[in-house]
Amino acid sequence: MTSTEPRTRLLAGSFLATAALAAAALVLPTGFVVRGPGPTEDTLGEQNDVPLVEISGATTYPPSGELRLTTVSVGGGPVSDVFAADVLAAWASPQRAVLPAEAVFPVGITQQEQQQQGQQQMTTSQQSATAAALTELGYTVPAKLTIAGAPAGSPAEGSSPRAT
């Protein structure tokens, strides 16, 4: 037995332990959110043979092209787990961004609350698009702004919600 043999075993064991720890670290969830381009949808098209956008009571014309709804894909936070390998890949991609989860989602929000908030934002967006289209067609669209709350630390914090 030579004096380098124990050193070689120690080095090999250290290398294996380091490799195992690095591999385990790549599959551990992180506190980051990865944001990137999501799918697009032609809103002038149909889904299950039902038009995605339909206007009744006004003259319409067949579309000659596409009107694409663009989306943003978000992984992490309450939505899903983002692993260290995902974060490293996103840092290397010019189309994706890595952000701390707290920069995108309120601390403590649940997946269900996030889904409800996302659905409410989509409904509001659809209503705004409808109002814009009707206004363009010459209709008068009554508008009502409701303040549901104010972020903590903002000047409006503590104000009671009211309709204006």
Helical element count?
A: 4
Helix content: 25-40%
Radius of gyration: 26 Å
Percentage beta strand: 15-25%
Mean pLDDT: 84
Q: Judging from the principal axes of the Cα atoms, what is the shape?
A: elongated
User: What gap, in angstroms, lies between the N and C termini?
Assistant: 87 Å
Helix/strand structural class = alpha+beta
Topology order in helix (H) and strand (E) letters: HEEEEHEHHEE
- The strand order across the widest sheet is 4-1-5
Low-confidence stretches: none
What's the β-strand tally?
A: 7
Largest sheet: 3 strands, antiparallel
Describe the protein in words:
The protein has 164 residues and is of the alpha+beta class. Helices cover 38% and strands 20% of the residues. It has a three-stranded antiparallel beta sheet. It has a two-stranded antiparallel ribbon with strand order 2-3. A two-stranded antiparallel ribbon has the order 6-7. β2 and β3 form a beta hairpin. It starts with a helix and ends with a strand.
Secondary structure layout plus pairing:
Elements: H1 4-26, E1 32-42, E2 46-47, E3 50-51, E4 68-76, H2 84-92, E5 97-100, H3 101-104, H4 111-136, E6 146-147, E7 162-163
Antiparallel strand pairs: 1-4, 1-5, 2-3, 6-7
Question: Summed up, what is this model?
Answer:
The protein has 164 residues and is of the alpha+beta class. The chain has helices spanning 4-26, 84-92, 101-104, 111-136, and strands at 32-42, 46-47, 50-51, 68-76, 97-100, 146-147, 162-163. A hairpin with a 2-residue loop joins strand 2 and strand 3 (50-51).
